[in-house]
Write a structure and sequence with these properties.
The relative contact order is 0.08. The strands form four sheets. Strands 3-4-5-6 form a four-stranded antiparallel β-sheet. The protein is an alpha+beta fold. 24% of the residues lie in helices and 33% in strands. The protein contains four helices and twelve strands, in the order ββββββαααβββββαβ. Strand 5 and strand 6 form a beta hairpin.
């Protein structure tokens, strides 16, 4: 959110909260190519050598472009994370500086600063869509409350684990729901650990149906 000044009918400035424009995390290499990072491996890139725009996941584009950064997954991830974090830090610093100017004009003596956030927390917060919030300068007695929170979430689709019984032996097995053994399904679990706790033996799609 940002503050926007507007002229009223009485030629006075008023301020209101507005959404800032969506900002791409754009990286440019020495060859003139550019990459717009996202919060996952999907990118929008301009290949200066081929003179065209491409988009897709980094691993998919590696063989279709000559952009060096897209050739190595580990290097790509390191640059993507550090570039996004640096960009967010610079934007926050700019907003805080402008807010301090606004505060001083309104007689507020407290100086707002960017909190010290561990690099690990930064990296964890940009792995997917998230939100960060900062609280500074709230007076409590003779002190002021300063805190921050970073939250994020990711929906991960997991393959269900089926607990079934071999009709020929009566032995209980658990296996991924993608396997087709023809066993009588008894229960469905979130993972193999839960199934094993209920007395099921592990079996997967790579084990022959004739195996004991």
């Amino acid at each position: 959110m940002a503050k926007e000044a507007e002229m009223t009918g009485n030629t006075e400035l008023t301020y209101k909260q507005v959404w800032s424009p969506k900002k791409p995390y754009t990286y440019a290499d020495p060859n003139g190519s550019s990459i717009n990072f996202t919060l996952d491996g999907y990118v929008y890139a301009y290949d200066a050598i081929q003179g065209k725009w491409i988009e897709g996941f980094q691993k998919e584009l590696a063989s279709n472009t000559q952009i060096p950064l897209l050739q190595d997954t580990d290097t790509f991830e390191q640059v993507r994370r550090s570039w996004i974090v640096t960009s967010v830090q610079e934007d926050l610093a700019d907003v805080i500086n402008r807010h301090n100017e606004f505060a001083r004009r309104n007689g507020i003596s407290y100086t707002f600063t960017l909190p010290l956030i561990p690099q690990e927390d930064w990296y964890n917060s940009i792995n997917d869509t998230g939100i960060m919030a900062f609280i500074q300068g709230i007076p409590v007695g003779d002190q002021k409350v300063n805190n921050y929170a970073i939250g994020g979430g990711r929906l991960v689709k997991k393959t269900a684990v089926v607990g079934g019984v071999d009709p020929s032996t009566g032995v209980k097995y658990y296996y991924p729901s993608t396997c087709n053994y023809g066993y009588r399904a008894e229960e469905v679990f979130g993972d193999g650990k839960q199934a094993a706790a209920q007395g099921y033996f592990e079996r997967n799609c790579y084990v022959s149906e004739q195996a004991p």
